[in-house]
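Deliverable D4.2, example record:
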Amino acid sequence: MLKIIIISLALLFAFQHTLQAQPGEVSAQKKTELKMKRSIELLNAARKIVAEGSSKQAESLMALADAAADQGAKDYNAGEYDAAAQGLSDAVEAAVNAIMLSKDLTIRELVLVEEADARGVKDIERKEERLRKAKAEVEIFMRTAERLMAGAEGLQAEKLAEGRKLYASSVKKSASGDLDGAISEMNTAYALATSAIKEYKRSQGEIITFPKKRPADQQELITYELKKNDTYEYLASLMVKSGEQKTGGLMDAALSAREEAQRSLGSGDRQRAIERFKASTELFIQAIKVSGE
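Output generated by the structure prediction step:
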């Protein structure tokens, strides 16, 4: 029994960690909704495992897990999110205990399960962060393209329209948990939006380039961050209205951070230069977002 309790608590901790791995501020309702979704997935898997065994105790625990989950769902529907979260945690704990009884897992097997779970959590976190950044960039590029090509027709306008569709589809896929599909479509939307801007600027006799994949080498990274900063400074010059009070401070701060980066680069402090270029870029992005509100 002691072994079962230890294993159950360890697995429960690993499972709860996946529920807490959400970027940024998330509402209690959203957290509970995600917890319910993943609890149902675990309970469904546990039910199949227990059904394959012959342990009456495991079946009893599974019944308790189902009852706790049902109560959690009722609390959720009533808007009692804290009570719902506790009920779902109780359901998960009972389900994990049922699995342990049914399969009599060893500590070694537990370690392997935990390691696999931890890798899965990290992978999900990386994908969510990657998608969040891509989404923010695509939003800005779409808005810039729409302003540049207002009323325009032809290939660039078609690319922009297709990019908008893929952007919307990516957001839906992300909400449903299909992170791989969401990332793929967001990357394509990025390519379409940047291509539309480049082709439009080329038709006007101007050239603009967008930074490629982030490199690992420090010198290449400096070049990448500088190019990215140039891109967003250009986009901000298009999107932010001159003399606009709500964005003026952000633009000044962005330009100041850019100057600091260039001074650091001149003095040989590459790491500081990278940090200040990044800060400047983020400020340009904020200014663009605020300008559109």
